[in-house]
Amino acid sequence: MSLLEQTAIFLLTAVLLVPLFQRFKLGAILGYLASGMLVGPWALGVVGDVESTLHFAEFGVVLLLFLIGLELQPARLWALRRPVFGSGGAQVIATAAVIAAIAMAFGLAWPAALITGFAAAMSSTALVLSALGEKGELGAPHGRESFAILLFQDIAVIPLLALLPLLAGESHAGGGLAALKSVAVVAAVIVLGRVAVRPLLSFIATNSSREVFTAAALLLVVGTAVVMQKIGLSMALGAFLAGVLLADSEFTHELRADIEPFKGLLLGLFFMAVGMSADLGLLIAQPLTVFGLALLLMAAKTGVLYVVLRLRGDGNETAQRTAVLLSQGGEFAFVLLAAAAAMGALSAGQSQLLVLVVTLSMLLAPASFALHDRLIKSWLERSAPPEYDSIDEPATPVIIAGFGRYGQIVARVLRMCGVHFTALEANYQQVDFVRRFGNKVYFGDASRLELLEAAKAGKARLFVLAIDDVEASVRTAEVVRRHFPKLPILARARNRIHWFRLRDLGITAIYRETFPSSLEAAHRALLQLGLGVAAAERAISLFRHHDEEQLHVQYAVHHDEAQLIQNVHQATQQLQELFEADATGPQAGFPQAGK
After folding, report:
1. Could you tell me if 452 and 446 are in contact, meaning their C-beta atoms sit under 8 angstroms apart?
2. Is 39 exposed, middle or buried (0-12, 13-18, 19+ CB in 10 A)?
3. Digit-coded pLDDT (tens) for 423-433
4. Which structural domain range is residue 421 located in?
5. Are 452 and 363 in the same domain?
6. N or C: which end of the chain has fewer CB within 10 A?
7. In a domain, 307, yes or no
8. Is 25 left (phi over 0), alpha (psi -120 to 50) or beta?
9. How many domains does the chain have?
10. pLDDT tens digit string along 67-113?
11. How confident is the model over 524-561, as pLDDT tens digits?
12. What secondary structure letter does DSSP report for 395?
């Protein structure tokens, strides 16, 4: 079968199956794995040359590691150092040790058992981040913890690939020489990248088209990978180093945008190739063994990670959710196992069994997520926290309702100025999280009168309404206005409708959360486009004044949708006329920005 025919089959199968898996919230990765199993030699047998396909599809992992390298800016990595190297390092080492001990109990030699342990410690970055993104939980405590651990796993793949020759020393001669070669080549790549790559990319970006820059980006990744392969090292190692070298360059965002489409397509092909390589005959012959090992892998990883996170101070729910999310095998396990098999550290039979176990664990992952969500929901309902904490401090000048990203900034400024405050937060997961960083915050619903009375709202001089949820914000504002009418309120509004509802309650000090930052971004955009400082500031001032004026005009008619829509159209026209009129005056200047 020709390469063109195989490509057509891959695309057809993916187009038919992947959307079906995504429709039922199973994820694209499982769709690619299932597609590969379907067309592979153990099912329909449409594609038989699995090895050549897997070798070509490895470029998907190469591009993924290049993009991971681009993300590893030193400042960002330093900011995440505690969860990344603390939780992530402990998880990889502890999981590898436990799985290696289990593998030795099953009769594997210690080098093969150790390789198996490190491969099993890897989790699926793409699968977990996709699941968190679909649920909107990337910013939740377990989402942040999962991301940090996955980041360490991705970083750990590189030294593991470099150390494989040493771990395979009994069956792969020259392990020490290979390690020395790795160090020398890494040093050479770093020096060459600093001296030549950035100036070359700068020259191409300045003097060529976008297509040529994309070609240069692909050449950088593929070229580095090929050089690494020629001298006996991992292609992925070269791509990762190339990404790290450019992580803090001016080309980071453009490179990411150019490489991302190729990465997505080739990574999908990689998962299809892994699905094709899964020995379904072995599954049919030994179903209990394969399923048992897959469940054992998931149970061991869950238990180890739960203990690690609890010892590091995470709450019970965060530790549970993170442990279940990372319980499956990952894409880099396939890379490590394939490399180990090629070096002879694992036999063909052992490698096939482990690949099948990892694949099966990834297929079972969505079911484990759903099952745990149901169990933890029931547990939370049975062990619900108290309605609110008892507030044992004297009255403070300020009460802050809502201690998320908005309320915390207000609190930090007040603390810096020596102003005492009482912070209330209705999300106990958030309370648990911020308390770990030394913040004093009380759990409770600020719309409950008894909590406000316990916080001595009657003696406060200011009430900061920083609650994110619109309904909870309005409900709290109603209670405060009714029972503490003399207490001034500074309110956060998510949007214009929220602003209108708060204004209906007689609140006048209302601040739209994204309005100032959006104006700052617009101001920077005008300067970037060549506008003078004075003209840019005047344009922003003009827009701010007009928008705030129209906000009050629209508030007067916001209960009548037809009048509100008409007013919006009129306001847009008025703003355009206002700018055109201002452009002819002595302050004119901004129309030239686009010329």
Report:
1. yes
2. buried
3. 998 887 788 77
4. 398-513
5. no
6. C
7. yes
8. left
9. 3
10. 777 766 666 666 667 777 888 899 999 999 999 999 999 888 888 89
11. 998 988 888 888 888 888 888 888 888 888 787 666 66
12. P
